[in-house]
What we know:
With 315 residues, the protein is an alpha/beta fold. It contains 11 helices and 10 strands.
Amino acid sequence: MTATAQVRDQKQTVGFKRVLIATDFSAASERALAYALPILRRYGSEVSIVHVVHPETITWESLPEEFNRERLEAEKQMQRLAEEARIKSFHPHLLIERGRVWDVLSPIMQRENTDLLVLGTRGRGGLRKLALGSVAEEVLRRAACPVLTVGPNVPLAEAGTSEFKTILFATDFGLASVKAFAYALSLAEDCQAKLILLHMVPPMPVADMGPVAYSPAFYLAQELTEWQAAKKKESVRKLKELVPSGAKLRNRPECLVGFDFLAEGILDTAAARGVDLIVMGANPVASAQAASHAPWSLTHDIICGAKCPVLTILS
């Protein structure tokens, strides 16, 4: 059975019952929290909020409590957060831990059977913060559960006031995308959102066009047009096959095929369609830490450029 058939025949129902929100009390984390609120309300989620204090040379144990300013400030900020009206009703479980971010988050997620991890990012830099760099990308590449990331270009205006109205699912038809589509479909059904399915085809390298690449421009353009038409027809067919016949969607999904560099094409489509959420698969790599230092990675580019949250699901 093909991966597409598995999605069609084995629909998964999303249930974000246990949500973990990582915060460093920055504006980025505030945005992430705001965008998580509709999900918490929709699924009646149990919520844990964790703040990770970076390990220092001097340990907490070696300092009297009254002199441990970093710990005291974290407790003060966490208490302020918990008392906000928008959060208080969820009765969040508050955690302040010390260590490397992933080393702290991983056991918490395993212990609490986390269904969704929420991160706010501010672009590269600041290894001691949950910035999109070595810390956040390591989390994205290693988290077994879906990760909702709110990037630096996502506005705070109206965040948390309404559910997702338009969801863009970007796919390369790989295994990670197959798994991610189950979440895109279920969220679209639950929120009665418009669902857009997108497959971006990167520009064809000249070397792949064979002898025609050295032909006059007219023949080259004709060959390219024919190739794009065939590729588009095939991709649209595969996109339509993803949607099961019993899908309970408010509107018929829109299937789009574009020809552009992947990140640019996905971001342009999301902006043009006023998308509220991008859903995409994240392919594992040999080393999550090595991937975090690759500025050209697709996941990084999408999150940094998107004007809406991005939900990634690891294959």
